[in-house]
Amino acid sequence: MKKYFFFIVVGAFFVTQLLVAQEVPKELENIISPEIHADQTVTFRFFAPKADSVQLTADFLPPVKVMSRFGIVDGPGTVNLMKDKNGLWTYTSKTLDSELYSYTFVVDGIKTNDPNSPYALRNSASLTNVFIIGNGRGDFYLTKDVAHGTLTHGWYLSAGLKMNRRVTVYTPAGYEQSTEKYPVLYLLHGAGGDEDSWSAHGRAIQILDNLIAQGKAKPMIVVMPNGNVVQDAGYGFGRDGFYKPQFLLPRSMNGEYEANFMDIVNYVEKTYRVKATKENRAIAGLSMGGFHTMHISRFYPNTFDYVGLFSAALVPREDATGKVYRNLDETLKVQKDNGFKLYYIAIGKDDFLYQANVDFRKKLDGMGLKYEYVETGEGHIWKLWRIYLADFAPKLFR
Amino acid sequence: MKKYFFFIVVGAFFVTQLLVAQEVPKELENIISPEIHADQTVTFRFFAPKADSVQLTADFLPPVKVMSRFGIVDGPGTVNLMKDKNGLWTYTSKTLDSELYSYTFVVDGIKTNDPNSPYALRNSASLTNVFIIGNGRGDFYLTKDVAHGTLTHGWYLSAGLKMNRRVTVYTPAGYEQSTEKYPVLYLLHGAGGDEDSWSAHGRAIQILDNLIAQGKAKPMIVVMPNGNVVQDAGYGFGRDGFYKPQFLLPRSMNGEYEANFMDIVNYVEKTYRVKATKENRAIAGLSMGGFHTMHISRFYPNTFDYVGLFSAALVPREDATGKVYRNLDETLKVQKDNGFKLYYIAIGKDDFLYQANVDFRKKLDGMGLKYEYVETGEGHIWKLWRIYLADFAPKLFR
Fold it and tell me: How far is A172 from chain B (nearest CA, A)?
């Protein structure tokens, strides 16, 4: 066979990149950003010879106090990058703890993603870059060289909501090769989220793979549905096409989701090899998903043996008019009397929902419903929800 | 139940957005970009009061001639946006054909994603925004209100490559509810791609859902493996973490992938309900994946009844030293003599691989191996690979 050199161009956008590359000095052709060093400092780089200022906004920088409609809250900090003679701007962080971090650049006042990293997650309508530092808690969020579970994006028919709805399902390593039946954790997202939030921001796949590989959690199926009843699927995956995401969709907390939750359970129990009993069903959720979890678990009060409320939005709402929300105290008492294995409540001290959780725990104390309580620092952030999941999952199905 | 108003903040990044919002005049609080109008013109908007220039780079603009190491090629065109008194820059396109389009902004010389759209695909190391115009061919790329197949990201053990490797699998609507067995299309990506390319850039899920719903294609399983033997998974999904993507990975075209392809077929035929016969196996690929397809289909010359080469990189390479590449003519003749249902070759007239495909067809003509040939306009772009898939899939398993 003759030997030639051969080149490939993939698409017009690669050509754009060549074009840009021609303007860049040789030593800048392969800019690495972010670069994580062995000492867990991180260097950020941005090539912008004509810019007057390049800043980094990141959740590991000292937070700034921000006036918002919720009062004064912590916002991510900002720091200036320094420009060299070639127009390359750089900043190196102090040593960072092992964690998943988020950042963006601000170039002459305009928020910009890192052009040298495609790793970004959606936050409302825009994308935010992410990176992970290992050697500690962050190892749980990395895809390690262990046996991997399978991630499935399927669709179930919701008879109640009268539509096919997208649902994300994790089956643990070995599921395909075995004939065993598995317990199921239903894991619910918060406002602004969808069926991809726990696998994206939440790193639920990596957390479960790693916990199961270490023998710390039982092999389980994890079902991540979409809690917004006006959507058939998360932004970009449904029949409404590519439209601008908004924070809180209408009807997400009016009872329709909770009242139709059994459509999801029935689909899962028909489609997957599951142990379809109360002691093999768990449900947990963050923020709005914690609100959903509390209501679903007491509205179907003999269905779930494990309940997890992560920074739960346990506050009554004006639009909470559905029949699901009636008789809160009575149904909680039925749930208590029916018995369960674990009622888990976790929240950060700085969460704006902290007091709502204090009030809810008082109610549970008053009726003698026993729960496990985890109080951490910090507020209403994904970092905590990953930590709560990694703490909660090992307690299930024991 | 008492009724309060209640607010939720999800994470520090939402607060950033509030902060930015405070600087924005009221009428600019919900910028829509891109906005697709009924007449199929599209308005792009970018808020940048301090910028001196904002440009749009897009694949629907008149292309510019670009000097690259492949000679003079077409690059995406660029156009200036106009600034209003509030600092909002806008541009409205002419009427566009129904299609999936890509674009980015360039703000004072810096390439920037659209901050008002999270819909972006990875191209090498960076992200490029996308949108779809329906009412024509683009309808095939939209998630329509039809029965949906399931998308699965699983892992197979490659004994030959000695690692667990990620693979993306589409099962058609109804798969979970039936006991039927299905035929399988193996669909291979090009250089710079991975196991997510066909479901992301290629819209393969939507194309198959829509073709099957319309009765134009038979229900089939589509298997989208990773063709880079140095990776266990695409960028960000494997054991190497988040690292900077490069265009062509080493060892992707040295024969190792083709020689170990049966590890994938065996996994699929063990894991899914498939018809495991030659007449129920198809293989197709774009560019490097077309090169893989040609070699796999003749190296295992009695395995696939349907073969599709989309803009195939049918050019010998210096690193193509594997045993797979020996005896090309002899094994093609064996493949021909064994018989097959369809050998499909498609390419654009402006493709830099056009002449290589002319030469390959001459070889096939010389040996009397009959193929179906589709020649289109344009070059080496995803638009054509989506069109070729939508043309090829209906011909399978008839």
Answer: 10
Q: How many CB atoms lie within 10 A of CB B18?
A: 16
Phi and psi torsions of B132, nearest 5°: -125, 135
pLDDT at B202: 98
**What is the tens place of the pLDDT at every residue in B23-63?**
556 667 789 999 999 999 999 999 999 899 999 999 999 98
pLDDT tens, A325-375?
999 999 999 999 999 999 999 999 999 999 999 999 999 999 999 999 999
CATH number assigned to the domain comprising residue A219: 3.40.50.1820
Contact assessment for residue A124 and residue A190, using Cβ atoms and an 8 Å cutoff:
no
> Which residue type, as a one-letter code, is found at position A341?
K
Helix (H, G, I), strand (E, B) or coil at A28: helix
Could you say which residues from 82 to 101 on chain B have a Cβ atom under 8 Å away from some Cβ of chain A?
none
- Residue A109: list chain B partners with CB under 8 A: 48-50
Closest chain A residue to B150, measured at CA: A154
pTM: 0.93
Q: Are B332 and B360 in contact (CB under 8 A)?
A: no
- Tell whether A287 is covered by a domain: yes
Closest by Cβ to B125, choosing from A74, A111, A118: A118
Which stretches does DSSP call E strand in B141-269?
150-158, 163-171, 184-188, 221-224
CB B45 within 8 A of CB B88: yes
User: Residue B123: is its pLDDT beyond 80?
Assistant: yes
| Peptide bond before residue A316 is cis, with ω within 30 degrees of 0 | no
Q: Identify whether A180 is part of a domain.
A: yes
Radius of gyration of chain A measured on its C-alpha atoms: 23
More confidently predicted of A72 and A89: A89
Domain membership of residue A104 as a residue range? 31-135
B358 lies in the same domain as B290: yes
The closest alpha carbon to B93, from B131, B128, B122, belongs to: B131
Residue A329 · residue A267 · CB < 8 Å = no
Within an 8 Å CB–CB cutoff, is residue A320 touching chain B? yes
Question: Is A313 in CB contact (< 8 Å) with chain B?
Answer: yes
Give the distance between the most distant pair of CA atoms in chain B. 83
Residues of A in contact with B1 (CB under 8 A): 316, 320, 325-326, 328
Which one of B133, B157, B184 terminates a domain?
B133
A76 contacts in B (CB within 8 Å)?
Answer: 12-13, 15-16
Q: Is residue A4 in a domain?
A: no
At A243-263, the pLDDT tens digits run: 999 878 999 999 999 999 999
Contact B176 A192 (CB under 8 A): no
How many C-beta neighbours within 10 Å does residue A180 have?
11
Which residues in chain B belong to E strands, given as ranges? 35-36, 42-47, 54-58, 64-68, 71-75, 77-80, 82-83, 88-92, 100-107, 110-112, 120-123, 126-132, 150-158, 163-171, 184-188, 221-224, 281-286, 306-310, 342-348, 372-376
CA closest to B353 among chain A residues: A8
Task: Indicate yes or no: CB of B119 within 8 angstroms of CB of A242.
Answer: yes
Q: Taking a C-beta distance cutoff of 8 angstroms, is the pair A294, A197 a contact?
A: no
Q: Is A36 on the interface with B (CB under 8 A)?
A: no
